[in-house]
């Protein structure tokens, strides 16, 4: 993008960064680097990544394909460990996956031979081992209702649309009552209308559950609609956090009102400028 004047917005961003954070620090990513050994030598994907996430925050992570967004969130999930630095949850180093962090992927990852109800029941059953069967069934029914799938409880994933499958995946992740919900481009495969519906439902769920959300997206409008802060990553190799945008819009957010707000376009242009001019992707994928 050319000719975009960022001065006014930079002032506004530094101003909004002075706003008080929402809750206590929950997750601290401290000078993290991730290096993969490859046949050609060491490949440094991430280097010097620092971020503190507060309880109840909604964080969206954007950056070009291959910069290391999933690598970073996989370390928060505990699927892999940093080569250098620390990822701390309430001051404790994350070394493995745990029920306090649940991940939802773009491709749903549901068990195809189980119904929507059974997919969620499996998660509830694994965590609430001491609860009676009737109580666990009640919990599953409540989750299905929360994601608007009561009528489809007995359907198998093959009988569900993409949006419905993602609703089941989100309900299953929340069944475990995680402190952090990690979403890796959850709506990337959905059509625009379904995507907007699910974004709104996700915000309702986030408000109701007060769960902390870390979400990867390639969609700047999605990030601006959902997030408290948008974390923008530089390109790899050795990618790091380039800038963090504080999103000042009041909640509950109304999409129609948001897009009438000139500040929305300032932030949108700022993020586009970051991605497509300052950190334009030059690699051919
Ligand atoms: N196990 C691994 N061994 C070697 N390199 C890896 C491994 N896993 C990921 N990478 C490399 O790390 C880099 C970052 O990958 P990652 O999937 O984290 O990026 P991303 O930003 O999430 O991309 P996308 O938006 O396309 O999902 C890529 O160059 C990828 O090839």
From TrEMBL:
Top-level taxon of the source organism: Bacteria
Q: Which residues form the ABC transporter domain?
A: 27-260
SUPFAM superfamilies assigned to the protein according to its UniProt record, in alphabetical order: P-loop containing nucleoside triphosphate hydrolases (SSF52540)
A GO cellular component term found in this entry reads: plasma membrane
The alphabetical list of record keywords is: ATP-binding, Cell membrane, Membrane, Nucleotide-binding, Translocase, Transport
Q: Which GO terms describe its molecular function?
A: ATP binding; ATP hydrolysis activity; nitrate transmembrane transporter activity
Please list which residues make up the signal peptide.
none
Q: What membrane topology was assigned to this protein in its record?
A: Peripheral membrane protein
Give the location in the cell. Cell inner membrane
The text of the family note is: Belongs to the ABC transporter superfamily. Nitrate/nitrite/cyanate uptake transporter (NitT) (TC 3.A.1.16) family.
What name is this protein filed under? Nitrate transport ATP-binding subunits C and D
Provide the species name: Allocoleopsis franciscana PCC 7113
